[in-house]
Amino acid sequence: MISSVPLPRTFSAADPAGIDQMLSQDERDVRGAVRRFCDENVEPYVADWFERGELPGVRELAVGLGELGVLGMHLAGYGCPGMTATEYGLACLELEATDSGLRSLVSVQGSLAMFALHHWGSEEQKERWLPEMAAGRSIGCFGLTEPDAGSDPASMRSHARRDGSDWVIDARKMWITNGSVADVAVVWAQTEEGVRGFVVPTDTPGFSAPLIHHKLSLRASVTSELVLDGVRLPADAVLPGVRGLKGPLTCLNEARFGIVWGAVGAARSSLQCALDYAGSRVQFGRPVAGFQLTQAKIADMTLEVVKANLLALHLGRAKDARGLLPVEVSLGKLNNVREALDVCRTARTILGANGVSLEYPVIRHMVNLESVLTYEGTSEMHALSIGHAMTGHAAFR
Fold first, then answer.
1. Does pTM top 0.70 for this prediction?
2. What average pLDDT score do residues 253-268 get?
3. pLDDT of 168-225, one tens digit each?
4. Which of the following is catalytic: 54, 132, 376, 380?
5. Is 376 a known active-site residue?
6. Pairwise CA distance, residues 197 & 218, whole Å
7. Which of 130, 166, 178, 374 is the most buried (most CB within 10 A)?
8. How far apart are CA 393 and CA 397, in angstroms?
9. Which CATH fold topology does 247-391 show?
10. Domain 19-134 in CATH: superfamily?
């Protein structure tokens, strides 16, 4: 009698838990297309960009990403592909496996600026901006964080007032990805009606976006300050679909979902680098990979990458099926970024002194994740969000 039990698959160090079998062919195709784009257009150059602290050719890169279909890929209509959350997550994983700055460019464009327009904008605003942004011909940024208002956006000082039928905005925003190259900024400000979002073309008089220099993290990324001095906008510049902090926080939750996946990519890249290095580096007459302490490190890293990948996949499937609660995204962001950072630090020890060299991706991923740990919700705030959900007590109020 022939058994119906399938034969065991061949073990692969690239997929030790067989997660690929849980993906559809369409999902694998999306992942493969993004990986090929990164390998051809970014991977050979990103260490040099990081060392120089710049992202040259960002507009050409944005157009290429638009042609690839990853800008606003989980949005539907207005030139957006309308793909699933899981497909978007897989794209974020591959983008960040190359560099967090690349994933940040895509995340801010699609999950912050485009999502705000798609979810809260008027029909005119959507028609004006979304097709161009999906194609990468227009770049967007998202202005929420301020010098004195990070985790507590309700304390923002940016203010918009009515002047006749116009709005006049005075604002200072910090740590804004894409700011200096953006064509449009979604800026949040206090008004007499509560917090409102405004669609600000960056060529509007009074708007400027100076670059932030001296970064030691996310160096292959455009990071800027936004300065709005008496910026005058027409009445229809306001996002009509939302008032209050629900607007920006909903957008941030979309972006955090991408981070849940992206962190897996950074960790996977560092694990693979450490594995390759340990197999070729010979000490005391044999490869470093043959020593028990090295194997223990590799086993621990492998477990964390697999667990983070499974958590991301679960949240992607849940988001596609029923949507996610904010606390579910906090679970993913807190765990995956924290564990990815630990994986990178452990991988660095396997590489020894070479681990601090940009000839290898590990130190770049490690310092990038220090920013990812903080932005779009610090680890402390996500821990408190989970604590609030579990206990019913809001410790941060």
1. yes
2. 97
3. 999 999 999 999 999 999 999 999 999 999 999 999 999 999 999 999 999 999 999 9
4. 376
5. yes
6. 26
7. 178
8. 9
9. Butyryl-CoA Dehydrogenase, subunit A; domain 3 (1.20.140)
10. Acyl-CoA dehydrogenase/oxidase, N-terminal domain (1.10.540.10)
